[in-house]
Write a structure and sequence with these properties.
Helix content: under 10%
Strand content: 25-35%
Number of domains: 1
Distance between the termini: 61 Å
Order of helices and strands: HEEEEEEEEEE
Shape: globular
Largest sheet: 5 strands, antiparallel
Amino acid sequence: MKYKLAILGAVAVLMTSCTTSVSTNQTDTEKAPSSETTSKTASAAIGSFRAVEYPTQGNARIVNQNGKRFVEFSEKFKTNNGPDLYVILHRNTTVPDGIKEKDYVQLARLQRTNGVQRYAIPENVNLADFKSVAIWCRQFNTTFGYAPLGSSNSRRQ
């Protein structure tokens, strides 16, 4: 009987572990643009989030600003909490639950689970190789949601 309760407890912990809170201490991201800098920002691609394992909504877009590239989430962005959430670029237009290392590039830890935020894209990343942005739980290799990126201008930069 004790073993059955221990197994049930372990299963419950695993099932809910991707819904604990996320740290918001970020050092490798930049703040969302103010109204002063928005005029200098060109949008290269945009997409709406789709849920995989957890409800995820809002838009993601690739922006170019002053020679740098960013993934930017809209004010309507929202997803669940998780212990080890990251923003990634994925090679495919759909992102499965359980991804392979060769198929993505990790940008940064998710800053928060809702609202406007942005993430720097390293200069060595060729955006033509990536077709979507995803929220991914690294600890459990679980995709919370993803946004396929359609072209609004050119994505070649």
